[in-house]
Amino acid sequence: MSGTSLDGVSAAVVRFADRDGRLHAELIGFVNTRYTLEQRDRLLRAMTGGTAAEYSRLAFDVGHWLADAAIAVIAEAGVAKREIRAIGSHGQTLWHDPPASTWQLGESAVIAERTGIDVVADFRVADVAAGGQGAPLVPIADAMLWSADKHWRVLQNIGGIGNVTVVPPRGTTEGVRAFDTGPGVAVIDGVVRALDQALLYDVDGKLAGAGTTVDAVVDELLSDPYFRQPPPKSTGRELFDAAYIARFIDRCRLSRPGATTADIVATATALTARSIADAYRRFLPEPISEVLLSGGGARNPALAQMIEKSMPNVVVRKFDELFFDGEAKEAVAFALLARLFVEGRAGNLVAVTGAKGPRLLGKLTPATPSSSR
Prior knowledge:
By secondary structure, the chain is an alpha/beta fold. The chain has two domains: 8-134 and 328-371, ATPase, nucleotide binding domain (Nucleotidyltransferase, domain 5); 147-323, ATPase, nucleotide binding domain (Nucleotidyltransferase, domain 5, 2-Layer Sandwich). It has 14 helices and twelve strands. The chain has helices at residues 37-46, 52-77, 108-115, 125-129, 139-146, 186-195, 206-210, 215-221, 225-228, 242-255, 261-283, 301-310, 329-342, 350-353; strands spanning 8-19, 22-34, 87-89, 92-97, 101-105, 119-121, 153-158, 161-167, 177-183, 290-294, 315-318, 363-365. It has a five-stranded mixed beta sheet, with helices on both faces. Strands 3-6-12 form a three-stranded mixed beta sheet, sandwiched between helices. The chain has a two-stranded antiparallel ribbon with strand order 1-2. Helix 2 (52-77) packs parallel to helix 3, helix 6 packs antiparallel against helix 11 and helix 10 (242-255) packs across helix 11 (261-283).
């Protein structure tokens, strides 16, 4: 899995088992490989323009990066390749504009050739072709694998984009609702990089913790039509892009002359926290008592504290506290989607994506067993 935060590739080895009438996922290997600055810059450039030759080469190169991650995590887990039924590969999103189109790069044939294992990839397009948002796709895993036994639970992922899933008890997918809440760390990271080229992100939330929020800017930005739009909905870097970040910084400086770097980063962090809380108030009528945070943003103490402050009547915890490393969560979810594909079962939730109906998600690239090297 490589997400909108563009930080790297998360690879997981997962063993699924049915017990007590529920599906369980055992994480037996996890590797998080960060993109180099050169790799990240190539992806960012590709999101704003490029030639056919550049896109073709990038698709194959990303396939090699994903294959490297798969090979590394298989070795880390100590599992024989013959035991692995399939590799589920999300790829790297370059463009997401539902219901018109969505585009994830990472040539699956490269992964299959390098590993000698069948690959299921390109999960989003079938849902978009059926009129859906193609996102979020993780909610089926949230419901099947990580619901509570007796109460409704909310799972909030904070990658580049924030997305929320509200799930009823006991693993049922009926009643599940989910959507993208808005920016996760995309705006925070973008602001940090624009203001301090020595940093890639706000390490441990120290900048945000040292700054004072420019509340007027957050109030203004939360009036954007996306935040008021009812689900199903999804978004991406197409909205929260470099131009958005430049305008964000200008607004902060105009609203508060002399605003420091810490103030502007704190304001970006507050935008994410308040957009999450605002989405809950607007669109989640369910009896919510618990929120589990995952993704890179969950490791930002300043962001986590702002989220807690914005929702004083809800218990906010890290996904890690109940399950496993939250950084592995989405990779495990796409392993589940690959498993559902292999079993011939739909992977989308119509109430979440707005598609015309259940769809088998993914495309199979079969491997020749002798191809691994």
